[in-house]
Amino acid sequence: MFPNHDLRFCSYEAWRGVSSYTNQYTKSGFTFESWDNGVRFAFIPISDSLVYWYGTRNTSENLKESQIFKEQLINSFKGFIQPVPTLIEGTKEKDISRKLIYDFKPLQNWSKGRVVLIGDAAHATTPNLGLGACMAVEDAEVLAKCLEQGKDLFVAVKAFEESRKDRAKLIVNSSWMYGKIAQLDNGLLVW
Known about the structure:
26% of the residues are buried. A hairpin with a 4-residue loop joins strand 3 and strand 4. The protein is α+β, with helices and mostly antiparallel strands. The protein contains 7 helices and 7 strands, in the order βαβββααβββαααα. Keywords: FAD, Flavoprotein, Monooxygenase, Oxidoreductase. Residues 39-147 form the FAD-binding domain.
C-alpha cells in the first residue's frame, strides 16, 4: 500500500531457540537478560524442563539469514555466565532460528480507500519491548469500537488511525531506542 516506505535495518540479528533444560531457574520461573558489548542473551523458562532463549549480536545487513552459524553463536556467548553457553550448545541447530532485525519508521497513514492496516503491517516494531502482538490486539479492539459506532467507514478508519498513531509511534520509537542502548558496543558505556 505504501511502496516508498522501506524497512529500517536495526544493525543487529537475533537467534531464538527452545531447548530442553532443567535447573533451579526453570523450576522457579526465574528469567534474565544479560548484556555485553554488542550482544545480549535472555533466558525464559516456559515449563520446568523447557527454556525459550534469544541472543542478539550487532551485525551488518549483508549476511544471509538462512545460515545459522551455530559455532558463531557459541563463540558470541562463550564468555557469558552459565547456563548460557550450556543452553546454546544443548540446543539442536534445527531448533534455532536466526533473523536480521528490522522495523519501519511510523507511517503517517494506515489506510488507503477501504483498506486499513493494523498490527505489524501498520507499525512493525523491534522485539525489544515484547509488545508487537499486544499492539495488534489493541488495534483490533479499537478498530472494532470505531466501526461499532455506525459512522461512515472512512470516518471510522480515520478515527481509528488518529486514536492509535501516537501510542504506536511511541512504542516503535521506544523499542528502537532500547535496542540501540542494549546493543552498545563501547566498553566504557557498557560498563
